[in-house]
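Design a sequence for this backbone.
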């Protein structure tokens, strides 16, 4: 801003009012400029208080010869006459060349302009209802929609962060892998409340090496374009910095690791959760947020929406919700198996469980593989499969009796008998009667007998 020699004592409040310009930078962020006076004010971090006041942070800068630079910064209820008067008095003490009454008129004009626009909210828009190409707009198919939030939740050490870092690398590379489709390179901001840059740097490097993108064909290291931001304050206090990074780097995907640390309040308090969603919506980018299950969810190792920690409004505010379940039986030293379970979907069909296997060597991640339902059915991950997939997994290698299938699923025969009959009627299974009159179930044209005998069998 250019320096101004004019003594504002000689300028009437009416001229200042006419000279004033208010600019909306983004939601809840404004800039007010008085060119003649050489004064610029920023208004941001706006919140609605329980007593109906609107509170905001005000920062006033001057380009005048006296007191050039930052004059004053404070947070006040901008709907309070007393607070505005006190703020104007403080500004007069910083620059007495502007009369106290003029400062008061300027601050009143600024706050009134901001309040009017803030209370208007977004303008209404006409819905034509004539869209012919109705489809889901994915940023990352089938996990994250365009400019919408997705939550992946799971217990500690389930591999949530590693999965998010894997997805982030795929975005950075514009790489489709293991059924995750990304059509072009995307800009990622990884906002980390849980660890530190050194640990995240190491993990990203491991993932990039496992995917073969750490080096070029000549063996030279290739740097990623992923942005990292260490966060140690609640989202309300980090939001401005995050927004600046989003604008500066043209971010497409914001990763939040994790929701619990970012909230800055009780996850069971609906007002805290609703404020969190409102804040995220201001970023206007796609969001992948990591979260934790409640106590019941941790005990059951399940991934239904009721297992997500906190208020029901957390589930209500998210467009796609996935639970991440880790196998407790397949915890070999060199591999981890996890399954993403689609727990909530607003505009899309429910996805089938997606299994992944992290393979490690003695020092680092070596590979990330996709595992199919048959493989999941061999471990405790079968609990996330439908009864249909659990039964198919049970008979994948050989035909089995109803009792054997039930035992594999930790069910009783009574609980699965109707599903077996339904699958036979649909042709998903065949019913087999051996020479010794045992009734068994197998996959169509499986032709594999149970290990206990070599009897001939007849398909019914």
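Sequence:
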């Amino acid at each position: 801003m250019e320096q101004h020699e004019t003594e504002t004592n000689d300028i009437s409040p009416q001229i200042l009012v006419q000279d004033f310009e208010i600019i909306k930078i983004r939601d809840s962020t404004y800039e007010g400029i008085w060119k003649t006076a050489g004064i610029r004010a920023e208004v941001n971090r706006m919140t609605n208080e329980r007593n109906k006041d609107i509170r905001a942070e005000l920062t006033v800068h001057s380009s005048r010869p006296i007191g050039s630079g930052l004059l004053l910064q404070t947070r006040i209820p901008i709907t309070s006459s007393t607070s505005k008067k006190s703020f104007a008095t403080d500004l007069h003490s910083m620059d007495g060349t502007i009369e106290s009454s003029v400062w008061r008129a300027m601050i009143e004009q600024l706050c009134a302009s901001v309040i009017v626009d803030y209370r208007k909210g977004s303008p209404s828009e006409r819905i034509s209802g004539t869209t012919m190409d109705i489809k889901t707009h994915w940023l990352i198919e089938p996990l994250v929609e365009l400019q919408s939030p997705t939550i992946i939740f799971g217990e500690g050490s389930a591999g949530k962060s590693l999965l998010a870092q894997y997805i982030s690398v795929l975005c950075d590379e514009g790489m489709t892998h293991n059924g995750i489709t990304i059509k072009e390179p995307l800009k990622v901001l990884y906002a980390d409340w849980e660890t530190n840059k050194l640990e995240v740097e190491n993990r990203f490097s491991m993932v990039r090496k496992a995917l073969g993108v750490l080096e070029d064909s000549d063996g030279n290291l290739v740097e990623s374009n992923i942005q990292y931001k260490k966060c140690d304050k609640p989202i309300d206090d980090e939001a401005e910095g995050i927004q600046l990074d989003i604008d500066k780097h043209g971010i497409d995907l914001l990763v939040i690791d994790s929701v619990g640390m970012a909230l800055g309040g009780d996850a069971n308090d609906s007002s805290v959760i609703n404020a969190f969603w409102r804040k995220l919506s201001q970023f206007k980018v796609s969001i992948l947020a990591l979260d934790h299950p409640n106590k019941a969810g941790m005990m059951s190792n399940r991934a239904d929406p009721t297992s997500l920690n906190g208020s029901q409004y957390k589930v209500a505010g998210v467009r796609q919700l996935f639970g991440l379940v880790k196998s407790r039986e397949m915890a070999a030293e060199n591999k981890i198996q996890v399954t993403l379970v689609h727990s909530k979907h607003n505009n899309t069909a429910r996805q089938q469980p997606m299994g992944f296997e992290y393979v490690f060597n003695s020092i680092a991640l070596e590979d990330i593989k996709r595992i199919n339902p048959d493989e999941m059915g061999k471990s405790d991950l079968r609990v996330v499969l439908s009864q249909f997939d659990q039964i198919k997994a049970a008979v994948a290698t050989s035909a089995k009796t109803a009792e054997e299938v039930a035992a594999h699923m930790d069910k009783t025969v009574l609980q699965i008998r109707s599903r077996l009959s339904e699958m036979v009627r649909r042709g998903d299974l065949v019913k087999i009667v051996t020479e010794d009159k045992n009734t068994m179930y197998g996959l169509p044209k499986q032709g594999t007998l149970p290990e206990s005998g070599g009897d001939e069998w007849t398909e019914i």
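Residues 8-120 form one domain.
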